[in-house]
Amino acid sequence: MRATPEQDRRNxxxxxxxxxxxxQAAQVMPxxxxxxxxxxxxxxxxxxxxLLMDFPPSAIxxxxxxxxxxxxxxxxxxxxxxxxxxxxxxGWRVPKIHASDVKRGLVxxxxxxxxxxxxxxxxxxxxxxxxxxxxxxxxVDQLIGLHRFCDDDAMTDCGLVLYGPDNFRRMLASFKTDYxxxxxxxxxxxxxxxxxxxxxxxDVLPQCWRAGDVIIHRDYHVDNLMxxxxxxxxxxxxxxxxxxxxxxxxxxxxxxxxxxVRHDISPDLENRMKQFYLAAFPNxxxxxxxxxxxxxxxxxxxxxxxxxxxxxxxxxxxxxFDFIPRCWDVILRGAADGLPALYDWVETHIPADxxxxxxxxxxxxxxxxKAPQ
Length: 373
What we know:
The chain is of the alpha+beta class. Helices cover 45% and strands 14% of the residues.
C-alpha cells in the first residue's frame, strides 16, 4: 500500500532524527503496537541496538490523569523525559535516553531486549532459575523501594500530577460514555445505571486513599517489567512505560500488578505478595489498606473497560474484548464483603450475561455503523 503524504513526512522526520543521532545507517524494524498512539522501532547498528519511540504531537492521546472533561489531548514526549529522570533518582532501572526531539515527538532510548516478565512466566514459569514467586517478589520489591523513596519527602517537588477523587471520576467518564452503551442498549436502563454509578463513586472513591498516597507508575504489570542483564552475571528488574506516573493512592500499582486481567495469578500468591509489601511498612493499618486496595481495583478495572469501549468505537480495535469477562471477575473479587455498594451496583445493573464480550452488531446504538475490525 502506497504511503500517504503524512506518512512520508513522518518517515522523513524519523530519518532526519536518526541521522542527527548517528543512527542513519541502522536497520529499522517496527515492533508490535499497543493500545496507545506511540509506535516503537528497534534499531540495529553493527553490535549495538536501541529503540526509537515515535509519538507525534498530532496523535490522538487520551489524557491519562483525568485533568480535563474532554480527555483527548495533544500528544507529547515531555512526560517521558521527566519521569525517566525521576525514576532514576528513585533507584529504578529504567531505559536511558540517548537523544530526544520534543517538537517532533521522537526519542532514542536504551533497548532492554525482549525478556519481559510475561515471557519469563510463559517459559514454564522459569528463566535463569527464577520462578513465578521470584518474579513477583522482584516486582513488589521495586514498589517497596519506590514507596520508601516517597517516604523521604520525594513527592514535594517531583512535578507529578496529584490525584484526588475528581481525577478518578473524570477517568471513569469513559466507562459510562464508551462502555455502558455497548452492554445496555435501552436508554432508560442505561440512565438509571449511570445515576446509580455516580452515587457509587461518591461512596467508594474517597476510600481509595485510606492508606495514603505515593508516586505510582500507573501501568505497573508484568508486560512492563523486564529481565535486563546488569554486567555482573545477573539481571536487574527493568521497568518501562512509566510516562504517565502520578501521585495517587498507595495500593494502585500493587492492584495493577496483582489484578492484571491479562495474567491470572492465584489468590494465594496475590495475598502473599500483599503481605510481603505490608511487612515493609509496619505502620500501615491492614484493614485500611485492604479497603483501599479493593477501591483502587474498582477504579482501575472500570477505567480499563472504558478504554476497551473507546478503542472499539473510536479506533476499531476489538481484540481487547477477550479480557472483559476477567475484568468483571476482578471487579467483583472481594467486593461482596469489602465493598458491598460496588457488589450491589453490579448485581443490579450488569447481569452475568452482560459481563461477557459485547456483540456490537446486535446493539442498535452501533448496528448501523461500520463494525470495528
